[in-house]
């Protein structure tokens, strides 16, 4: 599904790729809808766990820059080809499956929460102003990441991902410098 997309992947493709029989597949998944739900949970849990590990200890702009560099470097060898695993799934299923859309919404909310936690640490450390709206800043950071992933996927180049995140980090730095005036 990651390589071909949800709609282009058949259950026969899954049987072949997983080297199981159709009866084994149907033992675990009633239909493709159930399989897609499981894929969303698996990919979502993995994505959020990785982001939690990378973002959980960030307390400085240098740490945030390292997070950005890792994200860009991880996607560099593929030239941004596959985009964000969650964003790609959302693009494919959001209009067709309300349960999947809600799961993806919850995963994006969890990711936003990780950014909010990071920004609260920045506030506590005096890196950004205490009155800064961390919820709005976190939405902006998540949107920059997702937009950057999408543009990188379309261009087969990670430069748009890097640029989108850089613009958001520049905004955060500007907020931080204003806090010290």
How many discrete structural domains? 1
Given the C-alpha coordinates, what overall shape results? elongated
Return the CATH class. Answer: Mainly Alpha
Give the strand content.
under 5%
Helical segment count: 8
Protein name: TetR family transcriptional regulator
GO molecular function, one term: DNA binding
Keywords: DNA-binding, Transcription, Transcription regulation
Organism: Kribbella turkmenica
Structure description:
- This protein has 181 residues and is mostly helical.
- The protein has one domain (43-179): Tetracycline Repressor, domain 2.
- It contains 8 helices and no strands.
- Helix 3 (32-55) packs parallel to helix 6 (98-124), helix 4 (61-75) packs antiparallel against helix 8 (159-179) and helix 6 (98-124) packs across helix 7.
- It starts with 10 loop residues before the first helix and ends with a helix.
- Keywords: DNA-binding, Transcription, Transcription regulation.
């Amino acid at each position: 599904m990651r390589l071909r997309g949800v709609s282009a992947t058949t259950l026969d493709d899954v049987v072949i790729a997983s080297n199981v029989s159709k009866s084994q597949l149907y033992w675990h998944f009633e239909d493709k809808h159930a399989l897609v739900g499981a894929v969303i949970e698996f990919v979502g849990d993995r994505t959020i766990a990785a982001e939690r590990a990378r973002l959980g200890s960030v307390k400085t702009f240098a740490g945030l820059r390292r997070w950005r560099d890792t994200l860009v470097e991880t996607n560099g060898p593929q030239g941004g080809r596959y985009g964000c695993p969650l964003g790609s799934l959302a693009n494919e299923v959001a209009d067709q499956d309300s349960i999947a859309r809600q799961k993806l919404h919850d995963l994006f909310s969890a990711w936003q929460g990780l950014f909010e936690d990071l920004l609260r640490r920045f506030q506590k450390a005096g890196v950004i102003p205490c009155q800064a709206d961390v919820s709005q800043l976190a939405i902006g950071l998540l949107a920059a990441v997702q937009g950057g992933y999408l543009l990188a996927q379309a261009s087969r180049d990670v430069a748009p991902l890097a640029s989108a995140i850089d613009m958001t980090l520049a905004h955060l730095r500007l907020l931080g410098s204003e806090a010290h005036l």
